[in-house]
């Protein structure tokens, strides 16, 4: 018996694709159907990264694939290409297209394109409760008759219509719809479709209907042939009658004076007209006295005068809650994990492990892992759910809208602000989030600059320095609030640097005109707190933590070896620090600090512990019980205000951690861009520290 991998669908399960525009509640439908039986990964045999889950209905197994949100089957971004590829491959037994009841006409464009592709389509009209709140009434029975498709009214958050959807999907999966929805095109286009249809009908094993494939070939013949070959093995380039038909169509269109661009425009206009015809008389609006909360809230959150200040106050609140809230679970985790060291030593001693090896495993590998988990997990477990709550509420698209003007000046678009916000939790997540940016050029700029904003691994360094050198190592509510304010100002500085570097890139190696910014603003909705917490912890927090742990383990071994192996009476760690010292002094640092950042490549959380270990000449990572003691140690080793400022600048701007670099390489599939993403923040950090050092030299010379 072969054991099925965790992230593979059951082979005998019916496959249902879940498609739809962004912000229509598609994920809510997915969560309601699958519950906790969800995974995120590549579909077996494909390079399509989607979330997929499973459910059982009437003793039948179903695998549900949640495709990225898309507005049409003419992909403009990598995410939309993923959705198009999966639908075009016809891997699914049925497709459920989720629509927004408050703007059904716009959503119907995607419905019609998918219905042309496969007749096994069900239309899920979600957010019926919001439509009712706005005084909208929909005749979905009439729409179903016009489309010749099942149309299900739903309110997925309250699970209304879920049973009817399952029943309809079961019927479609087991007994396919015999007829497809037909969009009437202009006579010239219909004639061209007919020519291609006749040629395609003679081919065996076509996964699509001849008409659906003919329409795809008219839009983009080369892409359609390439995709068909990739997913089904059918080579249209080798079919002479099909190639002759393509030439005949090209000749007919040239005679009619229709270019490829005009052809696509005419097909798009026909789609719009068809959608308008199907929707005629479907929606009626009744007068309502209820206020539109979204419009009222947008007068505040998207105001030219108070929109940005409100955004900064929310950012301050998120940081303050993260800083204060992470202290207690971090201390508990630290006590738990470090408290296991004695038990591990006893276990290795019982097993007969040699003293040097057990110290390497416990004080090297285990201690670094414990440190990374204790310091990294609590802030992420707080920040990511809060970020996801703002996303679920509908506020984050407003952030992108508010910042779009500033980012357009830098040659990019407002969506970069969303990926930048993700970077506050973890730069690796921010890099992955760059997929939402349509323009490849702007997406690459966002990837290359994401590490210029600090992640939660760098927050402890920044907060500690702010508290020790600018707040007098005080404590209590006022200190935590002041620390949050100074941290927020530091973040604002990093955002300005990000925009500056983005502008330089857009004027040099990544030249281009900023793309038009299209971002749908969804209505504000009550967040689903339970599901948000689960999704953010499993999809983001634990995913990032797993990568960090994987690279921190070998780093722990290396750090222990450097601090315990000696040459000429000094440890290798001391020799390395001495070697780096002359260069580091020109940056306002010292060799120990620079070496700590180098050894902290796997995880920024271990930078400060390495500094302490080196100053105390200890053989393993150490932590002080209070910031007062740490402040005294740093002052005793030559730290000044200049050193504190330079360390903060270098913590803000230096090479990405190894987890982020691995993610960049995976996303860009290029060692060149990965190397550049390493160099850009590093050069910024070195240059900034050098300028500060020159400034202080000038001040000392004057006074």
Largest sheet: 7 strands, mixed
Q: What is the percent of helical residues?
A: 55-70%
Estimate the mean pLDDT confidence. 81
Q: In angstroms, what is the radius of gyration?
A: 29 Å
Gap between N and C termini, in Å?
A: 81 Å
Task: Please give the count of helices.
Answer: 29
**Beta-strand fraction estimate:** 5-15%
Structural class comes to alpha/beta
Outline? elongated
Strand order of the largest sheet: 2-3-4-1-5-6-8
Low-confidence stretches: 1-9, 39-48
Number of strands: 11
Topology of this protein?
Elements: E1 14-20, H1 26-34, E2 38-42, E3 49-57, E4 60-66, H2 78-89, E5 94-100, H3 104-117, E6 121-126, H4 128-133, E7 136-138, H5 140-147, E8 151-153, H6 162-174, H7 187-200, H8 210-219, H9 221-232, H10 240-255, H11 260-279, E9 283-285, H12 293-301, H13 307-339, H14 341-350, H15 355-393, H16 396-409, H17 415-425, H18 427-433, H19 440-449, H20 459-470, H21 477-507, H22 529-564, E10 566-567, E11 570-571, H23 572-585, H24 591-599, H25 607-616, H26 627-636, H27 641-652, H28 658-668, H29 671-702
Parallel strand pairs: 1-4, 1-5, 5-6, 6-8
Antiparallel strand pairs: 2-3, 3-4, 7-9, 10-11
Helix pairs in contact: 3-11, 7-8, 7-10, 8-9, 13-15, 13-21, 14-15, 15-17, 15-22, 16-17, 17-18, 18-28, 19-21, 19-29, 20-21, 20-27, 23-24, 24-25, 27-29, 28-29
Q: Would you write up a description of this structure?
A:
The model is unreliable at 1-9 and 39-48 (pLDDT under 50). This protein has a seven-stranded mixed beta sheet with strand order 2-3-4-1-5-6-8, sandwiched between helices. A two-stranded antiparallel ribbon has the order 7-9. The chain has a two-stranded antiparallel ribbon with strand order 10-11. The protein is of the alpha/beta class and 703 residues long. It contains 29 helices and eleven strands. Helix 3 (104-117) links the parallel strand 5 and strand 6.
């Amino acid at each position: 018996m072969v054991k099925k991998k965790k992230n593979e669908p059951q082979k005998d399960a019916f496959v249902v694709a879940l498609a739809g525009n962004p912000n229509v509640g598609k994920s809510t439908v997915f969560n309601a159907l699958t519950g906790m039986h969800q995974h995120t990964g590549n579909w077996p045999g494909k390079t399509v990264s989607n979330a997929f889950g499973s459910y059982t209905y009437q003793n039948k197994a179903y695998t549900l694939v949640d495709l990225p949100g898309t507005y049409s089957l003419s992909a403009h971004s990598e995410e939309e290409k993923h959705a198009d590829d999966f639908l075009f491959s016809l891997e699914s037994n049925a497709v459920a297209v989720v629509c927004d009841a408050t703007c059904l006409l716009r959503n119907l464009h995607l419905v019609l394109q998918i219905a042309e592709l496969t007749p096994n389509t069900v239309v899920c009209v979600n957010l019926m409760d919001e439509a009712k709140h706005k005084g909208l009434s929909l005749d979905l029975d009439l729409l179903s008759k016009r489309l010749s498709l099942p149309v299900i009214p739903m309110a997925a958050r309250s699970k209304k219509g879920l049973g009817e959807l399952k029943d309809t999907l079961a019927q479609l999966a087991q007994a396919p719809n015999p007829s497809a929805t037909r969009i009437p095109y202009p006579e010239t286009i219909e004639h061209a479709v007919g020519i291609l249809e006749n040629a395609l009908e003679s081919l065996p094993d076509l996964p699509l209907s001849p008409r659906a494939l003919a329409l795809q070939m008219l839009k983009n013949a080369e892409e359609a042939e390439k995709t068909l070959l990739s997913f089904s093995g059918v080579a249209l380039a080798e079919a002479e009658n099909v190639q002759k038909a393509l030439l005949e169509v090209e000749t007919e269109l040239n005679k009619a004076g229709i270019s490829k661009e005009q052809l696509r425009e005419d097909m798009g206009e026909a789609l719009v007209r068809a959608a308008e015809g199907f929707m005629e008389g479907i929606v009626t609006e009744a007068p309502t006295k209820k206020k539109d909360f979204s419009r009222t809230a947008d007068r505040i959150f998207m105001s030219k005068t108070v929109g940005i200040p409100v955004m900064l106050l929310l950012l301050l609140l998120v940081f303050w809650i993260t800083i204060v809230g992470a202290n207690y679970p971090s201390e508990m985790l630290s006590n738990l994990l470090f408290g296991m060291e004695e038990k591990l030593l006893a276990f290795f001693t019982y097993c007969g492990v040699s003293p040097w090896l057990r110290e390497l495993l416990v004080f090297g590998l285990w201690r670094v892992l414990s440190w990374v988990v204790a310091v990294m997990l609590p802030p992420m477990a707080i920040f990511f759910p809060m970020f996801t709550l703002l996303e679920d509420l509908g506020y984050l698209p407003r952030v992108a809208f508010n910042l779009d003007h500033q980012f357009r000046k830098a040659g990019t678009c407002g969506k970069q602000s969303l990926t930048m916000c993700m970077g506050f939790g973890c730069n690796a997540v921010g890099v992955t989030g760059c997929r939402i940016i349509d323009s490849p050029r702007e997406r690459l700029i966002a990837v290359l600059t994401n590490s210029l904003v600090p992640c939660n691994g760098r927050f402890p360094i920044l907060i500690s320095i702010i508290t020790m050198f600018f707040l007098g190592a005080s404590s209590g509510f006022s200190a935590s609030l002041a620390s949050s304010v100074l941290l927020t100002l530091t973040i604002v500085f990093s955002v300005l640097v990000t925009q500056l570097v983005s502008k330089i890139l857009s004027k040099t190696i990544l030249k281009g005109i900023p793309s038009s910014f299209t971002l749908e603003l969804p209505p504000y909705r009550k967040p689903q707190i339970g599901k948000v917490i689960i999704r953010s912890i499993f999809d983001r927090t634990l995913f990032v933590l797993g990568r960090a742990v994987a690279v921190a383990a070998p780093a722990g071994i290396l750090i222990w070896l450097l601090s315990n192996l000696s040459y000429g009476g000094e440890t290798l760690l001391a020799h390395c620090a001495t070697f780096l010292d002359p260069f580091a002094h020109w940056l306002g640092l010292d060799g120990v600090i620079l070496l700590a950042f180098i050894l902290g490549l796997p995880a920024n959380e271990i930078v400060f512990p390495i500094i302490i270990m080196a100053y105390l000449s200890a053989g393993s990572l150490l932590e002080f019980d209070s910031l007062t003691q740490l402040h005294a140690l740093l002052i005793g080793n030559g730290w000044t205000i200049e050193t504190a400022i330079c360390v903060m600048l270098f913590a803000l701007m230096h090479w990405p951690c190894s987890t982020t670099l691995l993610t960049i390489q995976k996303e860009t599939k290029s060692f060149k861009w990965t190397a550049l993403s390493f160099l850009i923040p590093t050069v910024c950090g070195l240059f900034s520290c050098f300028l500060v050092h020159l400034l202080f030299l000038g001040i000392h010379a004057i006074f």
